[in-house]
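[job 4471] stage=fold_predict status=RUNNING
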Amino acid sequence: MIPPQIKKSHVLKVLERLNEDDIPHRFLSDKFVLKYKGKALPPKYVICEASEIATGRQLSPNEFSGGSETNYFLESLGFTVVPLDPVSQHYSQICRKRFCDVTNPTAADYRLMGDVEKLEYECFSIYLESFDALPEFNDPERSLKKHNCSSGLWKTKLDRRAKAEEMYTGDLFRSSFEYARTRHPGASIYILSAKHGLLEPEEEIAPYDESLAEKTGAEQRIWSDKVLNQLEKVADLERDTFIILAGKIYRRHICKHIRNYKLPLEGKRQGEQLRFLKKQVK
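[job 4471] inference complete, writing structure tokens
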């Protein structure tokens, strides 16, 4: 049951601070979205977050029903809830499956890869119908890769113990680490990990399957507090300058506690971030 203490003001606070890329994968909706200022957010997750503001406790999604119960409650407060279009429903269902191992794929991994490929071509079809042209990133002459896949779906870690600087194998991490190493020689480099918090590059860790995107808002804030406590032991949050290359979901609760910081990748999409980083280290 949805707590009656939740009012419109509580929901508005959630909607103002929440972005689509902040949503944990398990909360992605495959049927309805709440529309607000250009955002499309999962109604049940909004209720869970609003409950924490209203009652001090984040509601579990198992404690109330999605669909009619959630939608009616939000609509009664004056919000707009609409059905997802078929392509977005398909995308949401794929994201719920989380990771695909392309190194040692199982039958389920192959099915997921097929789903991703079908979704990509469906998106290309809609784009072509709308703009009479394919998106630029699909142009093999201008694209960094001939085939783009959502980084959230593919494993980007080694399957054995390794130093933190070697564990993460994704293009964006490798380019970010090289940028930090070559553009800021002598600076201390730290790696943000959803499991470990703050890591030194030489620190050896075991492989893990954990993402900050899969944590609730409350869990993300607890993680951020842990990182800040770790940072205070190795740096001065008031006087030091931090160059942060981490994604928004990793840095959003951290930056507000740091006086001096720079965000070289702010406002850039993933392809633009890669081009920027590679250009800077040439």
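[job 4471] summary: The chain has ten helices and nine strands.
[job 4471] exit 0
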